[in-house]
Amino acid sequence: MTSPYNYNQYRSAYDNQAHDRNSQMYWDAVSMTSSDRNSIALSIYHSVPELHQEEAAASMHSQSNRNDKNWHEHKSVDFVLAYNPNERQKIKRQIFEKNLLSEGLLLHHDEAQNIHFVKIHVTHEVLCRYAEILKFKFPIKLDENESDFALEDEIGEVSRSIKSIFDSIYKYIRLDKRLFPSRKYELYHEFSRDKSYLFDVNDPDFFPCYVRLAVVSFILERTAFADNPGDNLNCVGIDKLLADKVYMTAYPLHDGHHMDRGTQRALLFNEWAKMKNWLKHQPLDAIKNYFGVKIALYFSWLGFYTNMLIIPSILGLLCFIYGLFTMFSNPVVDKICNANDSVVLCPKCDGCDYTLLSDTCTYSRINHILDNNVSVFFAVCMAIWAAIYLELWKRYSAKIVHRWGMSDYCRQSEHPRPAYLARIKHKKKVKNRINPVTRQTEPTLSFSKKLPSYLLSYSIILLYICISIAVVVALIIYRMATMGSKKVTAIVDHIDPVSYRYLIILPVTTGIINLIAITILNYLYDYLAVILTNLEYRRTQTEYDNSLSLKIYLFQFINYYSSLFYIAFIKGKWPGTPAKYNRVFGLRQEECSPGGCLMELFIQLAIIMIGKQALNALIEMALPLMMKKYNKFMFGYRQKDEEEAELKACNQWTKDFKLMEWDSMGLFHEYLEMILQFGFCTLFVIAFPLGPFFALVNNIFELRLDARKFLMYFRRPVPRRVSDIGIWLGVMNVLGRLSVITTAFIIAFSSGFIPRLVHHFSEDLNKLDYLEFTLAYFDTSHFEEKKGDEKYSVCRYPEFRNPPDHPNPYKRPFYYWKILAARLAFIIVFQNIVAWLQQIIDWAIPDKPTKLNSQIKRENYLVSNKIIREEKFRILQSARAKAEDIDYVNGAVYFEAKS
């Protein structure tokens, strides 16, 4: 079938560039560094030959009237633009589509419904040109003797020995080879039309779908929609057209319905996204071919992280079970429960009454589940696990990135963002520099010019972080006020004076309020972070994404973890004595129970972590479904005739139009959720040994639900290339190092581990009962606010203080300083030992396997040899042809002379 547009009239403009290796015309177009900076936007317009606007518009309009519904059967629809017919925006659309035509794209209009569509097909010539421009890598043709050094395929496979032993189990884990055949060895090289002999370019499937979509997206982002784009900075790119409502949306197509047999989408849905496949390996190569490297690498990382959680989940369960089995046999807890009326605790708040130590029996037993000697061992194991996990991920990602031909991908070779180039056009002192990777000239702005935007951005971030901290302070004051509220006291004392208030009401209500505040602030800050990042001068999309990710994560870190840091490190550390309490705004500071604050930290962690995961899962599944129904309702197509009814039923672009739009932040939130979870599992793991187990269960569902969401409810994302998971690897590395510090401080200051050790190994203190050792005496006649008729003459409180009859009453005894020294010594020893072990792990596990390094060297050798052989062959052919021409000329001269 003939193309709906006469592309031949524009084709000659590019034929002269077919083998121009410098590609200067292109670079002026993409990097916008033409010598005439006044026409910098014109350079985005790709420097195409001048076209007659009226003739092109008339030709386009006449062709668009042809509504051939079978067009897509002959020409694959790579991209779709949807718009509402609007005469006011018609000129912009016509100019934009004319410029797309001049780039070599084929367009076809579908105007049979209320929403009009422009279907885009990218030709082989355009793919060749832009594959070279964008430096895509493709598999080269290999001889039989060149494929003998393939690295053994370990991606998604267990070792052969384990496979042979557990083959009966393994069959439920491995992928069906009939549906996902074993991947053959491929050697990648950067595409070049001059070296087309390396590639099988005549293969109709040489350019995979993700390359086609990436090329079209690149062209759309850099095509102008004005006759003189140099006169207006905001006249370039599909993003601006979408913002101005010229087009409603732009998206690549799914290859069919998720239930249609024979489509890659249906195959992935049935064999990957369904929960019945939760035990199976992921078809990572198929995911990469359908969604691109960026999304495939996310699922690769999520699957690896989930598998690595199995061991800490088992250890955490064993630690928790140990606490359960010993909670009724611990001598200290037994003494608390058997204290009867012999030990009376001082009032916990201004409006509270005295309580018996035995009333804290249940709390103390539960606290023992978390605060035991095995928990310390588990915390050390988790710090070591975090280091091993990160090192193994580096090795795993190195193999899989090399497998996909992305090992050498560098963000410096990434093309500048159109928004960045447009912003620096009218800036003074814009300098041209040589890109160290591409060796091309591009404009750059000095750091001094960028500094004001950075200062403004991070100043506002600091302000919002202060707001988040203020929310936590407000919650602390709420807790203090609730503790001292006479109304609350009257209600809970009627039920149970200890358990309900300290174990249920305050921790649970505060945790729920904190979760609600966190969720609200998150949505506000996400919106603000995008605005602030847009103010900065970020050259590439990768730099933009990393800057945005860092801003949001810094805020989320404070938002989620600040209340946990308060409970772990501040609460109950400086309450004062009953003779003189330390007050904040006239309110008594909160105190920990005799067993410490680990139980409350456990409750807060459980509510935030589990509640956050449950809320996110609900939003992630409910919101796309609701938006899909909303789009179907708001943009439903009124059928004009039977033909439209058929179109409505069969057109993939109309089906995909009703799906949710995929934006650049889509994958960011998936990473953020998992990184926050990683922080919960490492920073506070001693208080929540079940954290890794709940994370494992969540991730098993998360992986399949994310896959289902991407395939069912979202339009197909534009494939992006990456070589790693971006800033998140560095964030996890920092969290792993920080977890050593937080764990050491929690063990030293928030648990009873160090006091138990000092009591056990000190001969003078070992003579004392442990409760006598940890509970100080107080004479009730010394209360700062006299209560009149006191029920008891003496009460106890959890502090290391001298008794009232001591020469220095209520002062710190010598053994307090002994315990403090032991705590500080433990922190130093713990941090150094664990840090030393982490360094050994880092040194012992290389980031790249030795075999992979050898393979890369072998591949470079094979490619170099192949190029040398082919170039020699071409030179010989050229020399032979010249010799034949000379012989022919000499022969002709000889015969002419003879005649």
From TrEMBL:
Subcellular location: Cell membrane; Membrane
Recorded family membership: Belongs to the anoctamin family.
Membrane topology of this protein: Multi-pass membrane protein
Name this polypeptide is given: Anoctamin
One cellular component term from this protein's GO annotations in UniProt: plasma membrane
Recorded superkingdom: Eukaryota
The entry's keywords: Cell membrane, Glycoprotein, Membrane, Transmembrane, Transmembrane helix
Domain Anoctamin transmembrane: start-end pairs: 287-859
Domain Anoctamin dimerisation: 74-284
Residue ranges crossing the lipid bilayer per the database entry: 298-325, 374-393, 455-481, 502-525, 552-570, 674-701, 722-749, 814-837
Source organism of this protein record: Clunio marinus
Any one GO molecular function term: chloride channel activity
